[in-house]
Every structure is written in C-alpha cells, then in structure tokens.
Amino acid sequence: METVRWEWEWLWTTWQIVYEGSDREHESNIIDMIEQFDDDYSRFKETSLLSVFNQTKTILNPTKEFSGLLDIWLEAHTKTDGFFSPFVWVVLERLGYDKDYSFQYNWTGYVPYEEMLTQTGDTFTLWSNSSFDLGWYGKWFLVDKISWYLLSHWIDTRMISWGWDIRIQQDDASLLWKIALVHPLKKDIFFWEIVLEKWAITCSSWLERQWWHNHHLINPRNQQPSKSDIVAVYAYHKTACWADIASTTLFVCWVEHIESYAQKLGVAYLVLFDDDSYLHSVDFPRFHFAAQ
User: Nearest-CA neighbor of 267 among 76, 81, 66?
Assistant: First the structure.
C-alpha cells in the first residue's frame, strides 16, 4: 500500500503528515480544516470568533468546539494553579511580541489577570482590560482534530509532526517510530532516542522564539520570561493539546513542582538542563540515552 507523505509550511513551522493509503482526497479536506480553524481562532483576523470575543468581552452559546477550547483552558488553569494561562499574551504584547512583531518594549506595569475569564451557564465573559489567545495549545488541538479525522476514515497509520513535536495514532502496535531528540543548544547532537507506538510528544524551549533578552515562555506569577537553568521540556500524552499544556507548564513552574504538576496533568516528561543533566519520569518513552 502506498505511503502518503505530505509536507507544508504554516505558522513558521514545517508540518508533515504521513499515512498509509492511496487516497489523497484527505489533503484537501485537511487544508479546509486548517483554514477554517484559522478563520475561527486567529487573533490576526478581526472577524474571527476569537477576535469578536476579545472585542465584545462576552460570548453566549459559543460553538461546541470553541466552548471545548475554553473549557480546556479553565481545566488547565485550575490544575496548574495558574501556571498555564493564555492571558500571558497581554504580557507578550507589552514585551514586543505583538500583532506586528515590533519587538518594541512597551511595559506599563503588572496586569492582574488571574480571573479574567469567567463562565456562567453557557456564557463566557472577559474582563474589560483583558484579551484572550489560544496560543499554541489551540494549534495542538487542531493537530488532534486532524488525527481524529484520519482515524474516522480508517487510515491505518498516521503521524503528524510540526517542528519538534509529533503526534502518532495507529492501530498496529508493531509499527514503531524511532525518533531522535536533537539537543536544543547543540544541533548536531541527538541527546535522547525514543520509540513511539502512539500518542504525542511536544517540546517547550525558549531557544526558537526569543528577542533581545526576552522569550515567549512567560511565568504568570511575575509576568516575565521564565528564567531558570532549564533548556527544554518534553511532555508525552495521549493528546497533543494536553502535551503542549504540560510542556509549557513544566517549563515555567518551579522545578520542585514539576513532578506534582506532571501527575495532575497525566503526562510523562523529560527536562533538559543547561549543564546537560536531565530529569525525567519513569514512564517517559526511552530507547536508550544516546552517546554525546
């Protein structure tokens, strides 16, 4: 049977889908899903559901998908004691990571956003001085959605990769994907090798998105780029969305709380420090530790 490999660029990242089959009609359907998702949730499009929500501050009876995305955030915010928050976008904009990517510092003080999103019945409300962004967890929700679409069409093997992150869903447990993790600071070194049968691995690191002395991984407690000796965090979960929530949370939280939050979020994890030491849960996928 033919192996379909499809690659494209979106959001400054190379995406790839691999599945077994000869029918390429799924490509146009997946493109339609991606474009619709962008139309609905892009903060750059004034008519998107997300932009209208930010403008009106209230949304009544949102679509099932939008409501689900908001519910995911509320659950993640509770489980992580606020370490995961899409409201850090307010801070990122003031640090220069704004709509126009001006990278101009415009800090005007602390933004109190602990309770910026509230829910009463089928109504979600934003505080007047806040704005909401799905951030990357929304993109990984889309990856899960694409994977579930392929599953619904009985595609036997599927792998979706985007940058450093990978989502695998297949029925044949004998089909294994051997993956080498590249050292974020030493791009010619594979520091960890894993074999995946299923699920998703995501990575959070400050190295790929930084400007001046800032980066995009914000600690909501002090509203500043997280500063620690952590270089990267990898999280392993059955969904890409929750893997991304976890890798972000474990990067910005206090190191001594990593194990606790990983258990609350139900993920396996690997943390790489700047001295090449590492911390990982016993259930993080492992082939062997690669020679450095």
Answer: 76
| CB-based contact 161:15 (threshold 8 Å) | yes
DSSP state of 288: B
Q: How far apart are CA 162 and CA 6, in angstroms?
A: 12
> How many alpha carbons fall within 13 Å on the CB side of residue 12?
3
- CA 59/CA 54 separation, integer angstroms: 9
Q: What is the pLDDT of residues 60-99, one digit of tens each?
A: 999 999 999 988 988 998 899 888 877 666 666 666 666 6
Specify the pTM. Answer: 0.84
Q: What integer is the mean pLDDT of 126-130?
A: 75
36's CB contacts (< 8 A; 6+ apart) are none
Strands 230-237 and 268-273: antiparallel
Tally Cβ neighbours within 10 Å of residue 245: 31
Q: Locate 23 and state its tokens.
A: 């029918």
Q: How far is CA 50 from the centre of its chain?
A: 17
Q: How far is CA 82 from CA 16, 29, 171, 247, 264, in A?
A: 32, 36, 36, 14, 13
Contacts of 123 (CB under 8 A, 6+ apart): 58, 59, 60, 61
- pLDDT > 50? residue 290: no
Torsion angle (degrees, nearest 10) of CA 177, 285, 134, 95:
-110
**H-run or E-run covering 151:** helix 135-152
What does the chain come to in residues?
292
Residue for token pair 């690669």 = 290
- Triad 86, 30, 161: Cα angle to 5°: 65
